[in-house]
Amino acid sequence: MQFRHPLLLASTVLLLIAISACGSSDSPAAPKESSDQANFAATDASEDEGNSMIVDNGNNYSVDDFVSGGYKNVTQFELDTLPEAVDAWYGFHSQKDVELRFYESHEAAIEHGLESAEIAVGKGAVGYSKRPPIRWDAFAIVGNVVMLCELDIETCEALIADIN
Fold this sequence. Notes:
By secondary structure, the protein is α+β, with helices and mostly antiparallel strands. About 30% of the residues lie in helices and about 20% in strands. It has a six-stranded mixed beta sheet with strand order 1-5-6-4-3-2, sandwiched between helices.
């Protein structure tokens, strides 16, 4: 029997490796951080669904880094609802919606972006005017960017893998 979707197989293998590498968090409100640059799925901030990760890989990204990795930026947002953000974009990668919120540093992304990402994942994009009506199911904070991803954490992981 021949496997018809090699990308799906590779993604599944990477997911299984990532899951086996993840430890359990004592508290869903206090996600652990990883500084290992090669491990993108090192941190699970949600005990029940595994829909988030935080990785300090030492990088400061811009939207151009994501565009070079295949991200299609569609709409640049006003920053009035994102305190301390320096840039924000809605777009897609591999036919899935992704919102990118950029901050000055990894620490700023956690301090100013973590709570709003948790709210977006828990309640969807309801309440954000000027935002597409997207249901965000996962988020990642990688370097200085908060990523809201449609469907699952693999959407975030695939985009990060494509820009590295």
